[in-house]
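job 3f2a | input accepted
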Amino acid sequence: REALRDFGKAWPLKPHSDVLDATFESEKMRALASFQNLYVGLEPYRNNKEIGGGVLRKTAPAVFGLLSAIELHPSNKKSGVFAPIGGFQAVADAMERLAIDQGVEIRRGITVKRVDSEGVYYSLFPEEGKESNGMKDEEIFLSSDLVLVNADLPYATETILSNNNNNNNEHHYDWDDKFDYSSGVIAFH
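job 3f2a | predicted structure (189 res):
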């Protein structure tokens, strides 16, 4: 009932940043106390352009502040934030080994120029127009049954996806409010 008091304006449903701003003066303490919001793909910051400060979309409600208390409370014998042995690079290395074992070809040291439904166009040189050992930069096509693009969606849409309107090889990228950005994190449970 408390959460719905005053039409949802009580602390549990406020943006987490509202409670953190009222509790901590230190920016570092606010960041520490809001880190858990990223676990679920939410951001702690109030968005004044959204109803309720954004808690109905992608702003974490203040009740998420309880996550850190649960993790760090001394009565919780399994408390803490866990990380993989060897760091997150060990996870990437294991995924690479698994992919190679399944027949996936991984290419490094190339620059993806564009992607379409048939495959990937790439270059062996990191900068357009460069030469290396007398070889000219050229676009190479790699036919693919499936292409996974792990770049940020707004960036990929504006730069390498073939249906974009910016295929004039200009290397610039600017914020575009038509995209709904989200925070991201790898979480293991």
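job 3f2a | Confidence is low (pLDDT under 50) at residues 165-173.
job 3f2a | closed
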